[in-house]
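Reminder to self: tokens first, then the designed residues, so the page reads top to bottom the way the pipeline ran.
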């Protein structure tokens, strides 16, 4: 029998929190009084995370563990969880308890009222650095300004999605997956639930600046061509400016006798335009690299093993 609810939990080096996460999720899910499964995805953790979860699998038949062969990243981990989740509704939550599972019943109630996606919207973020909060704020607004799909602001991966939304997203085979964007893109009836984002229960963030930037680039390139058009617009304005400047030089040459001492301006202009050209080239590279990823058509993740499915499959 397929469970009513699946909970997808990506985990990367979360040995300090994972037991507490399991405890809180279990108590919330039991309280909801319907069948459920907890789908943990171990994204190549180098600590004891996998071992701890495997322990839960042995004592609790509602726990599943998908073990990756290495660290593939947060989005691939969610992709795997969503591929294997069997529930009629699928919750997605981080392993660090920053998103409170106690919001689940409220999300489920909205789902039962007929909403297909119930996403958590952060009313406040506790215990995160000013830099993280501001970079996130600017990021969500920038993305929205540059893309045509409406992507809800201040929303992470904390949400409930209906089976049909999960299937729809699983059918999108792009490799660099910005999942919250894909969920918006597929449409359906969506609604927000506000919550306060808590401090991490333990451990530290697995999103250093480098990963955050890569993530932002994925989001941008997956949903917008506007940066590519930047080249055209900038090129046009720079040509226009150069033309006006040329007229000015011509005028100087013909009608005045000021000696031309234009070294500074020449060098300045060259550096400026070269900088822009390089920037645009880099941007093109970002898109081309992603096209290359698609062409290679490698899987988004590779599983080493699946635990907790033996009983579940027999019961089917
Ligand atoms: N995560 C993952 N693979 C990664 C990085 C993160 O599965 O390569 C998981 C991590 O264990 C957590 C979630 O993704 O459950 C969000 O990560 P984190 O809490 O570190 O990000 P933050 O909340 O600081 O943005
Ligand atoms: Mg976190």
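Designed residues (316 positions):
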């Amino acid at each position: 029998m397929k469970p009513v609810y699946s909970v997808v939990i990506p985990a990367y080096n979360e040995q300090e929190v994972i037991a507490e996460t399991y405890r809180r999720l279990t108590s919330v899910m039991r309280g909801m009084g319907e069948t459920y499964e907890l789908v943990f995805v171990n994204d190549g953790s180098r600590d004891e995370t996998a071992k701890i979860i495997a322990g839960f699998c042995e004592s609790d038949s509602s726990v599943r563990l998908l073990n990756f062969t290495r660290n593939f990243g947060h989005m691939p981990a969610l992709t795997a969880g969503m591929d294997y989740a069997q529930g009629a509704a699928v919750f997605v939550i981080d392993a660090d308890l920053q998103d409170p599972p106690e919001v689940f019943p409220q999300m489920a109630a909205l789902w039962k009222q007929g909403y297909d996606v119930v996403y958590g919207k952060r009313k406040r973020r506790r215990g995160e650095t000013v830099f993280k909060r501001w970079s996130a704020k600017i990021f969500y607004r920038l993305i929205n300004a540059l893309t045509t799909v409406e992507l809800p602001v201040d929303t992470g991966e904390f949400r409930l999605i209906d089976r049909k939304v999960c299937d729809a997203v699983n059918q999108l085979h792009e490799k660099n997956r910005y999942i919250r964007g894909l969920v918006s893109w597929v449409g359906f009836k969506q609604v927000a639930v506000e919550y306060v984002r808590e401090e991490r229960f333990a451990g530290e963030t697995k999103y250093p600046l480098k990963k955050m930037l890569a993530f932002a680039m994925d989001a941008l390139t997956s949903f917008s061509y506007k940066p590519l058009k930047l080249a055209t617009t900038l090129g046009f304005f720079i040509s226009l400016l150069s033309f006006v400047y040329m007229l000015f030089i011509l005028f100087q040459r013909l009608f005045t006798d000021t000696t031309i001492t234009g070294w500074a301006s020449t060098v300045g202009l060259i550096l400026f335009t070269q900088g822009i050209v390089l920037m645009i080239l880099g941007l093109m590279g970002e898109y081309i690299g992603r096209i290359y990823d698609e062409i290679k058509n490698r899987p988004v993740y590779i599983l080493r093993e699946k635990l907790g499915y033996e009983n579940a499959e027999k019961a089917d």
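The beta strands are 5-11, 36-42, 63-68, 89-92, 117-125, 155-162, 190-197, 303-307.
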